[in-house]
Amino acid sequence: MLLRRRILATCGLLYLLSQIFFLINIQFPRGHDFDEFHYVPSAKQFLELRENQNYEHPPLAKELMAVSIGIWGDRPIGWRFMSTVFGALTLVGMYLWALALFRNERAALWVALLTLFNQLLYVQARIGMLDTFMFAFLVFALAAFTASWDARLTAREARRYLYFMGVMLGLGTACKWYGVIPWAFCAFLVGAVRVLQSWGTRFEAPQENDWFHPGLWAGVRGRDWILAFLALPLLSYYLTFIPFFFVANGKYGLWDILWEMQRKMWDGQSRVVSSHPYMSTWKDWAILKRPIWYAFDKEGDLQEKVRGVILLGNPLIMWGGLLAALAAFWGWIRERRREAFLVLAFYLAFYLSWMVIPRKVSFYYYYYPAGMTLGLCLAYVFERIEFLGITRLRWARWAFLGTAFGVFIYFFPILAALKIPAGSFGRWMWFRSWI
Question: Which of 139, 137, 146, 138 lies closest to 101 in space, CA to CA?
Fold first, then answer.
């Protein structure tokens, strides 16, 4: 009970501090920040129960933005306040995901702090875009799924985690269809484990931290899997369409929502989109070849000042995280580590899914979920260093965190839309492809 209270207190403190931090200077940019141009008008249409023009995506994220605009008005804080809420929740979710992975409060807190300095979360928590809301739900889903990956649980405990996961997967998909990727991947992992369990004695006696255990999800019945992976996600997803029943012209019926709107969304996603100066491909994202400027606004009588917002992952975390992912691969192959397998599996699922998703135009922000998991890969490396008793390197965890914080502060002016001299932004452009 004391441990649970301490975890809840940590979650509350992480949420409160990050929420306040994300709100500072939220009024900049003063105009629409990148895709807010699409989603703010759509949110206002939900607020007024008018026909919605942004039919390419599910409604939940825009409905949440509508609530924010209803409270704060049609101005920057109204457009972005709910993003700060879900950005702060994402930080809490990363803490809980790390806790489920490493079963260590110190490691979980380290992951939360590293996530705060990741730069991806900071920028996404301050813009009215669908990905912020989607990943907030998905990270709680993956925390629950990871917590269920424990043979010590009773069937009742495992079911609770899996049911919660199902609801969160449905809500994440109701923000953006990309939520189907972790939904399908979790189902695939369960199916793979069930196949391995059917082989029985072909595997050595497992250790507590082995990625595979023959007793995993013991007592979870077929109907539980149907609830967790089908009924609860679909119910959560479709409930978010209820506002369409109240649109002013009243043309939407049950069949329209169950099928016709889904078909129309698919059609909208399949259309060829014109090129964009900041478009990039999945091969560029992991190496930070082509980040994306969300805003670059000039100010002053002579336009001598600018306020810019660039989505650029913290280079130390992005590049160091790739090395950590390789270490996780080795930890899974050589030592069969549960946490190594799960962090690597979800990183690759988020990243390599873009090899097959049929998008004509793609952007660096698609890397947001994958980039966030790199903090977990890094935590795995530092946990193994300490577990193996390499005492001379125990300081490395905190030195890395401090350096990541320093890099975050260095880039902060062009993450937070601070006013800077017009020609000075080049000092942060390490490569020409970043401009």
Answer: 146
